[in-house]
């Protein structure tokens, strides 16, 4: 892991930042318009201002991670890359998922279209990525492949690989947040205890990867040792905070199931054999 991570500064073109900014503004505008439409359709239910604020906060965190100066610095400083990873892959996804974008979409679509989308969400192909095991493998399991193989150096050597890495961080982070504590419908989501187990596994995996990175075990990162160690510290402590926030979101949205006592009806005893019939 010794040696400086070389990257051509010219690959961070202005149009990439402009494209990212336009996409974020478009996503924010679409959400705000959908929230306004949901309020108009059902003024009694309305739409939560807290959820709208959560979505805007997620977009703001993405903007910090995807735009200069952090994005420009991340090309030459591993610590900035790890800060990007935390923002794009852990903090922003939680804020976006807690904004319940799927629920908002279903409330604004025509009834026939909403039923089709609901059927798609309940289909078997949709249940696989929404399961916590899949989300855990994509978001946490992929970190070992990224930092313990030449994949990281290869991705940062090409602009396309750099943006594919960001897309993977964002998508896998959203899947994990949705599978653990998302308010949107998720038919394949297991119970709260199982989700806490998956979250505990994610916390443990993050800690082990960060410790291995700090100690230089199995790491294949072309950056100064001091930067790699400080980046590992950002992953260790920043990941713990993000996952504790996710656990808090899970407990805040958890509703215990009500247990109803089964009432057994015992038939009244009939007249005994040989007894006179009632008049």
What attributes does this structure have?
279 residues, mainly alpha
Number of E-type strands: 0
> Alpha-carbon distance between the termini?
99 Å
Which band does the percent of strand residues land in? Answer: under 5%
| Main sheet record | none
Which series of helices and strands comes N to C?
HHHHHHHHHHHH
Question: What class, by secondary structure content?
Answer: mainly alpha
User: Which stretches are low in confidence, meaning pLDDT under 50 for 5 or more residues running?
Assistant: 2-12, 259-265
Structure description:
The chain is mostly helical and about 280 residues long. It contains twelve helices and no strands. The chain has helices spanning about 15-40, 50-65, 70-75, 80-100, 100-110, 110-120, 125-130, 130-145, 150-155, 160-180, 190-215, 225-255. The longest helix has 29 residues, at about 225-255. The model is unreliable at about 1-10 and about 260-265 (pLDDT under 50).
Outline the fold blueprint.
Blueprint: H1 14-41, H2 49-66, H3 70-74, H4 78-98, H5 101-108, H6 111-121, H7 124-130, H8 132-147, H9 151-156, H10 159-181, H11 192-215, H12 225-253
Helix pairs in contact: 1-2, 1-5, 2-4, 4-10, 4-12, 5-6, 8-10, 8-11, 11-12
